[in-house]
Amino acid sequence: MSDLNRGIMKFEGADSAAALTASAIVILGSIAVLILWALKSAYVF
User: Fold this and answer.
1) What pLDDT digit, counting tens, does each position of 7-17 carry?
2) Is residue 36 within 8 Å of 29, Cβ to Cβ?
């Protein structure tokens, strides 16, 4: 069993490249949205 197949990702294929890529895109995208929202709220563009 892979270490990535433990914790909250307890499904088969949790350590596949597609699953890791999708989760990375979701996480990095949400961080980018929060940064842009914070900048838009703090400064008038």
Assistant:
1) 666 777 777 88
2) no
